[in-house]
Prior knowledge:
It is a single chain. The chain is mainly beta. It has one domain (40-177): Immunoglobulin-like, CATH 2.60.40. It is 11% helix and 31% strand. The protein has one helix at 2-21, and strands at residues 40-42, 62-71, 79-85, 88-89, 95-96, 101-110, 135-139, 147-156, 171-177. It starts with a helix and ends with a strand.
Amino acid sequence: MRLTYRSLVTSAFVAGSLFLGAQAASAATSTATLTAGTLTMTAPANFSYPVTELTGLAMPPLSSSFSVTVNGAGTKSGWNLQASIGTLTDAAGDAIPAGGHIIHDAQIAPLAGTTGPTNTIASYGTAIPTTSGVKIFSAAANTGRSESTETFNTLLTIPLDTAEGTYTTALTVSLVAGP
């Protein structure tokens, strides 16, 4: 009886092994097609320089900043920001030349968990352009695919013979595809 029971168990094990060994493997392909969304920008808010008392003497440039938030929406081609600014004028027609309005640096704050864009503008310190189509920030190809905020620190030089007044002008910033 003992021999018969062992024979049955051994036969069952061998038969089960044959069934398990005969299983077939199959592979499936997983696909995810992702397309770039729409490149978008949040326009800069109004920005001001501090109220300053004129003394008739040379004074250091006034400082301020403006920020632009860009969503690269997955694009690999890069993007750039272009800006122009006009002459600052007051209600009486007095003017501060646009050439005294300078971007002296740019700071990048990428969305948490991303690396942010790589700016290909090597240096700052020149006047904000008075004509459109001049790059103030350029995200290199394959960078800037998610959201980031670019903050531009500005300086305004006040000429010695400037009259008192509240001076205003328009800053125009455009987002363009490509670095």
